[in-house]
Each structure stands twice: as C-alpha cells, then as structure tokens.
Amino acid sequence: MSRPRLRAGALVAVAASVAALALTACSSSGGSSNNSDPSGGATSPAGSVSSTSANSAVAQAMKDLAPYEVADPTISLPALSSKPPTGKTVDFVTCPLATCLEIQKAAQAAAKAVGWSVKVFNGGVSPASFTSAMDAVVQTPNDGVLAIGILPNSAFQTQLNALKSKGVPFVAVASASPVGDGMIANFSSTPEIAKSGTVMADWIVADSGANAHVAYFWDPSLTQHTSAKDAFVSQLHSLCPSTCSVDVQSTNFSTGIGTADPKQVVSYLQRNPSVNYLVVGIGDATAGIPQALAAAGLAGKVKIVTRLADTINFKDIQAGTEAMSVTEETYEVGWRMIDVLIRHMEGSSLSCCTTPIGTIHVITKDNLPSDLNVPYSVPNYQSFFTKAWQLAS
What we know:
The protein is α/β, with parallel strands linked by helices. The chain is built from 13 helices and eleven strands.
C-alpha cells in the first residue's frame, strides 16, 4: 500500500521532526512501551468498582465532552475598537505540505478581507531551507511575519532578534517554543494539542460506560504530540482509575503509515484480546489499519479513535470502520494569524489570542461533514473574524 498524502497531522509532525533534527536530539521509535509510568507506559485496571462510580465517571465525561459536540461550534473573539488599518503587507514563510498551503491561503484570504497583501516565502521542510527563507525575510521585512513553526525559535534567534529590533511582530503555527523573545503568538500549540487528548479520553469513557481498555499508538519522535498522549492518559486515569486501562505503544509514523503500522497494530491486538479501543495519535496514521484488522478477522473487535481528523478519517467513519475522530483547526488558523497582528498593531490586549485553544470538534457517524474531501472547519468561520474586525454586523 502506498503511503497516503499527509494533511492534518503533517504540519505538527514535520515541525516536531525537523525541530528534533535541528537540535540533533531525535529520539528513536518503533518498539512498545511497557512501563507502569502513567505518562507513557502500560497500566492495568486495579479491580472493579460499583455501578455508581461508573455512572459518575460517565456523567463527568459527558459533561466535559458537551462543548465539543455542539452541532454548530462558534469562534469567540473580542471586538476591535475600530476597523483595522488598510494597506499593510505581511510576510508568510510557508512549506510545501498541504496543511501549510491551506493555512497560507487562509491567511491570504483574511488579509484580503482587511485590505492587506501577503508576500510568500517557501521555507521548505528542512532546517536549511527554513533558515534561508527567514534570512531573506529579515533583509527587508514588511509589517509582520507569519511562519510555520518548522524550527524551534532558538534555531533562528538571530533572525528573530533582527525582526524585534525593527519592531516587526512574528507569529507562528505549531512552534515548539513558548511565546516570547519576539514571537507574539503561536497557534496549534500545546494547550490545543493537550485538549484534543482529553476530549478523546472523555469520549471513550462515555462510550464504554467507564469500561475501556485502550491501546494508544503514537510516535515519540514527534515530541509536540506528547501533550495529547499525556492528557489522554491523565484524563482516563482520573475518570475511571479502576475499570479503565491504557497501554501506550511506540511506533514510527514517518516510515510506518500504511505499511508497518497496520501490521504492528494487528500483532498487538492478537496478543491483547481484552483491548476494546484503539487510539492512533494522528488521524493520517490510521491508513490501512481498518483493512488490516478485517484481513486478520479483527474487524469490529476494537473501536478506532484518533485526533487531527483528516479526510481519510471521515471516510472510515462513514464506512463504519472508525468510531470517532477529533478535529483541530486548519483554515481558521490563517485567520487567527492575521487577527493577532491586527490586535498587536491596534495596541489591544492579546490575552485572548496568543496561544488559544482553537475549535476542537468531535466527529462521529452522526455528524459527518457534508464534504468528506476537505478538512473540517467551523461553519462560516470567516464571519466571526469580520464581525470582530468591525467589517460586518
């Protein structure tokens, strides 16, 4: 099976991988984790609890889950005090991956809505190409710089310092670095990634009646996904410590999607027949897993749950081979990047918008998007921005 084109999971995955390369600290992956450490290894149920405790766990999970299951999610933004200034130009350091281009085009659409223009630089997917693009930007920067967070800020601090000295704000997507030292905002960052892990755990507890035995497959070299894994494990233990379990399994998404990963999952499930939920850390990485389970006679033995939902997940959910996938923002991120620049220029508080938890949405067979061939987005998401910008009523 050929490897699928990565979309939703690719951006953060590549950013984390390239960051690790730049720091010469890549960790090896592909084996399993069988530790008792709740942050990353196998855990086992301690025994049975009363139905009252199970009901309480389910009730709490459903309460926590409710905001992410609404039919028409919205985006909350404080209104600007006046319309944005026009005639600005911003630089965008993009990459050739589908998600990068989607965010770039969304930022261009948002800029057009306020009368701005965008100058695009191709940052590639390597440390050298990204640094070269940043070198070009800082020579004659425009009114703001937007970039895909391919590298940690420490790897191009010289360029950030140059922007800061010129009073040019820098905004990133999926950066592994915290806001500061010239970076005024970072989208699709740790808080949002962690929340998606919590939401997956809530859904599984509610769906299972607090009786879930989970195998969580992830790639530890993609370090930015650690917060999703940790939040999932923590929430599962918090809600049903005695009747739920999770075994965290390491794999290598960069080489195993559609090939080695499905075989590893099948082998694991054959050895662990009590597992009833399979969590895959990135939506794209489910490729080939339903087919492999069916070929091994395991179809319907586990419910597949994932995050960073992509079109492959929507189609598997429609086919009944995947149970649930959590979406995170794509197009909306481009508009958020322009929004935070506007607020910075206006001198408004950025407390709303520096590392927001973007719209996270639970997708099941009951609420599949009308178009299964594009990433999910909040219905009419543009209107929430134009209203906040005093451009629409």
